[in-house]
Amino acid sequence: MPQSSRQTSRDEEFSSYMAARQAALLRTAYLLTGERAAAEDLLQTALAKLYLSWDKVRDRGALDGYVRRIMVNEHNSLWRRAWKRREHSTDDMPEQPVHDEHDDGLGAALWSYLQTLPPKQRTVLVLRYYEDLSEAEIADVMGISPGTVKSQASRALAGLRARAPRSLDPRHTELREEER
Fold it and tell me: How many angstroms separate the CA atoms of 139 and 148, rounded?
């Protein structure tokens, strides 16, 4: 079977499954999340993962169970995230200061170097410096010890220092401003 007709057949199979089972799976997602919008997001993520694995699923009769397992795993990983635990509903919007700063492109440049790090090191730095989590919170989220968090952070920062140009080092720009 040519590649394009195999892809078309695959897409038709997936579309017919999704059309037939979407309502029931959405009900399951709603029961997991308790919110319509969150349930739709959860189901969308699960169906996207199913689509990517469609050819690997041999027992088509077990598709519902497979999708439910994806939804449970996704939902568990969502509520385990520390930011979710810190989120609280309220009727009043809190006043948030707005820091409207000029983006000089350094953030994007640094992000490109951050993406060259191994996944575990990158995750530790993102949780520490972007999400502002403590070492203990990071250890809890990632399922590793606080000592591993420290060593991964240390290695990651050393890797960034080695990869990134000195012009991206905030200490380097502060030194230049002091010299003026």
Answer: 8
Is residue 133 within 8 A of residue 139, CB to CB? The reply is: no
pTM of the model: 0.44
Q: Which of 65, 148, 159, 58 is nearest to 115 (CA)?
A: 159
Give me the sign of the Cα torsion angle 70, 74, 80, 85.
negative
Contact in structure between 77 and 94 (CB atoms under 8 Å): no
- In terms of Cα–Cα distance, which of 31, 30, 67 is closest to 47? 67
Q: pLDDT class for 26, splitting at 50, 70, 90?
A: very high
The upper half-sphere exposure of residue 50, i.e. CA atoms within 13 Å in the direction of its Cβ, equals 28
Among candidate residues 27, 51, 49, the one with its CA nearest the CA of residue 39: 27
Q: Could you report the per-residue pLDDT of 150-174, keeping only the tens digit for each?
A: 999 999 999 888 887 777 666 665 5
Q: What share of the chain is helix, strand, coil (3-state, %, to 5)?
A: 75, 0, 25
